[in-house]
Predict the structure.
Amino acid sequence: MWKENILEDLKTGVLEYKIVGEFLVDIRKEFGREDEESVKVVELKRLEQEGKMMEEFVQEFRRVARKSGYEGRLLVKELILLYTKGSWSQNSS
């Protein structure tokens, strides 16, 4: 039943998700099975510099990354994706 309700809400635009991870986090929260790694992966994908100095941004990335379960290439890939989508400014110190 809940599946049909959610699918209907997605079709009608009541619910909007930019990435699948956001949807999965909400589902896990709703059913009480919140997975910290999944939450941190979504948080990692949402990071933005937002006027922070580069050092602060990198520290925040590392903090979130530690709990994401991502390692090696996956982590580098996320950092590159953040850079290419313009989540940080090259001019910040």
In short: The mean pLDDT is 76. The CA atoms of residues 25 and 39 lie 6 Å apart. The helical segments are 2-12, 20-30, 36-46, 54-68, 72-84. The longest helix spans residues 54-68.
